[in-house]
Design a protein that fits this description.
Elements (H helix, E strand, L loop, with lengths): L2 H18 L26 H19 L9 H8 L5 H20 L9
Helix pairs in contact: 1-2, 1-4, 3-4
Length: about 120
Amino acid sequence: MTQHQQLAVALERLESSMRAGDLWKQEPPPEEAFESSEPFCIDTMTLPQWLRFVLCARLRESLEQGSALPQQSQIAPAAELQLQGLSTGRRLPVLESLHDIDHVLNTGHLREQASS
């Protein structure tokens, strides 16, 4: 699989984990929220809003256009801090998906999944 295809898989996992954790249903932030200069728009959006309306939207747009992808990503460590208040069952699948996205962007391929 190409890096673009692997990223598409990782994004689908993120959306699925956010839906399962009831984090996908977010109100769209106001337009001015996107103008934030803070990392992850932390001052104008919740992390789930940023994940859905910024990260997923921009990465999907890059995939659709066949654009170059970011070469470095460290989303999962920041998300670990921001999602601490969620139950483990809601938090861990989202974090695993974000680790997958980071890994695809940093290395060009998905992490190998541990066998059950």
